Amino acid sequence: MPSAEIETPTPELMLAFYRRLYPFKSIFKWLNHEHTPSRLFTHREISFTLQNDVYLRYHSFTTADEFKKQTCTLNPTRFEIGPVYTARPRDKKTVRPGAFTPVQRELVFDIDMTDYDGIRTCCSGADICKRCWGFIGAAVRVLDSAIRQQFGYKHLLWVYSGRRGIHLWISDREAMALTDDQRRSLVNFLTVIQGGKEMHKKVNVRPIIKGSSADLPPSIRQALDQLVQPFEDLILLDQDCFRREEGWKELLQLIPDSKIVEKLERKWTDDRSSDDKWADLKDEIKASYPSKATRAPMTHAIEDIVLQYTYPRIDAEVSKHRNHLLKAPFCVHPKTGRICVPIDPEAIDEFDPELVPTVGQLLRELDAAAPETTGEEHSDRERTSLKPYVEMLEKHALGLMSVVRRDRIANDMTW
Amino acid sequence: MQKSSRRQEEEVQVHSDLKYSHRLSLYDRPPTEDITLEEFETCAIDRLYVLSEIESCYARNRPFDELKKITKSQCEKHVPLDHNSAITKARDDQRRKDITGHFVLRLAFCRSEELRRRFVKAETTLFRIRYLDASERERRDFCKSGDFDWTQVDESEKSMYAPQLKAAVPDADAKEQYFKVKWTSVPDLVEKRRVFLKDGWAYVPSREQSSIVFQEFQTRLEKALQMTAKALPRMDEDTRLEPILANLSQGFIAGMGSEWGTSENTGEGIRAEMVDELAHKHFPMCMRNLHDNLKRDHHLKHFGRLQYGLFLKVLGLSIEEALAFWRRSFSGYTDDQFNKQYKYNIRHSYGLEGRRANYPAKSCQQILMNDQPGASDSHGCPYRHFSPNNLQTALLSMYSPQGLTEADLPEIMNMVRAEAYHVACTRVYEITHATQNVRKGDGIGSGETITHPNQYARASMALEHAAADGVKVEADGDIVMS
Ligand SMILES: [Zn+2]
Prior knowledge:
Radius of gyration of chain B: 27 Å
Mean pLDDT of chain A: 92
Radius of gyration of chain A: 24 Å
Largest sheet of chain B: 4 strands, antiparallel
CATH superfamily of the largest domain in chain A: DNA primase, PRIM domain
Order of helices and strands of chain A: HHHEEHEEEHEEHHEEHHHHHHEEHHH
Oligomer: heterodimer
Bound molecules: zinc ion
Largest sheet of chain A: 5 strands, antiparallel
Number of domains of chain B: 3
Number of domains of chain A: 2
Low-confidence stretches of chain B: 1-17, 255-267, 472-482
Strand order of the largest sheet of chain B: 1-2-4-3
Strand content of chain B: under 5%
């Protein structure tokens, strides 16, 4: 149930937002990792989408102030952040073509609710509600821990995409420097759901040893452990995915034993709940394969089903290339008016996309607090519900800056 | 035999005339001797023969074993490298030539990202073939000399992660030794999930050590080329070298033999409105599926547009006709939306925008291996990416007008199960062209199997033309006038 009416942001609203609320300084610190402008900021591509949908690429700035000034002049509907190049993007035309290549970039991920359209029953397409946000919640928990524990990255920023998805920005030095090939490897390592819409079984990640499928690789085993509960809560109870015929037929496609499938097809003519059907399936397997030794293929099938319905569906293309542009945090989604706010992964389940402030709401809050103000970005923001989100980004940026400071001190000592 | 070769190897250490003690090189030091301009050029050209042949093997999707055989024979001809057991002055010259040629080509190929990428791929392949060909001892010596950044995993750590190691490398036994390296130095093993990952470290079983070596070779070469590129503007001032270097990079580009580039159109003058009929009569299943999806949804996602668009280009659709075709197909979009979101991409694939590259159409290999379709995509190869049930339904609905029946399905599905997707596609071609005297085993002529969607369409259209012209295409591909 949408809580606020959809208000398409007008150019006037946008301009006031950039002037009074957008946290340019915090964004600068987050991209730059220190107070003094470095190449991480000055050689960074920013691209703007203007009100008439004209797309301006290869802008770059020397300071946060200049960044703010230009944004207010152009008054875009949104802007995107690209890679750090070998030269300043705004000088692109004047440098040798070979001397202008992307060298660094946050490792980014994009998860979009539309990739769950085959599964979720509450909404479809552009719609999203608190209920289907559960899929995003499960995805965030799996990816967040996989990236921290397996790849050892620590500086992860999760950002609501403003409508029906979530972005992840990873700013660790090593992650920033990954080549496109390394990015591709990392993303493929994390990708489990594969096969086009015509493929029923989308999980095929088991090594084949002597002709039969072996146990899951350790990384996916760990994800599975995290997904058993969401599968029950989300797939069986909330979304009730297997109640409708369409849903349970799809489930039976994934059972590699035709006798069990036939039995269940006969049994499931009544309107049984997903929970009951899942129990039926497990009972049938136990009855048909009384010894644990022979049950392995069926256990594998069950595990693969849990993964297929709940494992994160990553838009891989976004992550594979350093020069992919991604909408900046705190931009306004042009359709919903909602702010792309950071999200604490620890509190992902409490997050409700419908309660995220819209640009109109923020400006009304500002007017209600004090009709006329100094127009100073920071003090204005303090009086709106944007405040906690900006604090989250600030805290995250401080973490990055302390790493740079620590490295610098360490270098001084060795010298 | 063994004894004598061992004695010889030991002798190498004291043989002061010979400078190059290792057969394999990471090329971390350029040759320091003076060099004539002629030697500069011949070393490079000889090496270029080998690298071009490696590239063309990739373009032809040759299996690795074949590539290895071809490369080894090219090496013997142009850049021979004797094993350590041969201690001769000639051996040292060979190694000097190997290193010189490599460094000259670095100068020639560092100038653009595209050239660098291709050079790295070919050189890494060459290195890999030589490494696999090396003796155990040569490898060991090389690994010792290479200053690689790996540490052996001790027993206590091994037992701590025993279950994870077992799951990551299920066919390893308890004695397996592991090396710990940064995951970024073994991305290929990470991608295939063949290593256990913890805090950014990959636990690599010792038999995969060669993976680390290959990756290290590639990474170091990539970095070195970047450095060379930065230093090059100063080198350009040597006017004697410039024409030679330019020539070398030209040679590499020309040596690349892509059979299905942009120039070889199958049919001239295909118009937008003819595509629908052609699709039903002549297209392989992957393209037919994209065509049907496009007609139904009035839209295709990015990789679908790319796969289908390049295919149509090579089929003979001019840029004007292509724009007309796509505009008409995307009927739900306003002119404005179409122009903004899609027109640039179409013009780009014709080499009219951006880098102005002439993109070839995707081969079966590329369609099978690259850009795996996501959950809502329709590109890819139906034989591989459809579930068995959907594949059979689709086969019947697409090809029953051309004579495919349910009785043909078991044979096709057996091929699919054996992952012989090309063979399944070729079999469907034979079945659907049976009325034109194509018999089982004929393939698209002389028993040739399909390796490219445009090959399928061209063969099918040629059969039709031949029939219309009153000529008969014999099974061996010869055309006979009747
Ligand atoms: Zn919903």
